[in-house]
Amino acid sequence: MEGGKLLIFSAPSGSGKTTIVRHLLQQPELNLAFSVSVTSRPRRGNEVEGVNYYYITAEEFIQKIKNEEFLEWEEVYRDNFYGTLKSEVERLWAEGKNVIFDIDVAGGLRIKRKFPEKTLAVFVKPPSIDELKIRLKKRSTESDDKINMRIAKASVEMATEPLFDVVIKNYDLKAAFKDAHRLVAKFVGAPEPEFEDNEE
Q1: Which DSSP state fits 49?
Q2: Exposure b/e, 48-61, CB count within 10 A at least 16 = b
Q3: For labelling, which of 12, 23, 32, 143 has a CA lying 20 to 30 Å from the CA of 193?
Q4: How many domains is the chain partitioned into structurally?
Q5: If you ran DSSP here, which 8-state letter would residue 162 be given?
């Protein structure tokens, strides 16, 4: 597999990585395309096939594992699989794009290990576990049990921070946007953004 750069954004659920990735995708000079993951979990609310995820059954997912179709995959919760198809990254590289991932910590680190030279692995750090819990509850998309599972997982994920190339602290979203924009521009060789003094 040859092609552009890979930008990994990983973090515990509720850290704001998805919001940061969406912001970066709106910057045309970065030449980014989003890698849509595959999942066996049911679709939530307003999610769209091929935009948020590719939705398949757990059986189909297991078959793709056997066929070695994944760059990385993980069973995050029982029968809830998530993964990145090799074909998805190859498709975006064929379009001449740099590929950006909004992916969990384990998956992000696996991709970094496979492509160490062309990957920038970014860890998005929330202010605290308590703040994460507040953000997850505000979403109102999951039961308390699911939220508690995510919080338990987040504590483990926070410990992986030193394994990433760089950490963005998402204590203030505007500042996090700027930090991410500068980092990615530098890594992909795009012009570095100039922000007004009053924006700093």
Answers
A1: B
A2: eeeebbebbeeeeb
A3: 12
A4: 1
A5: G
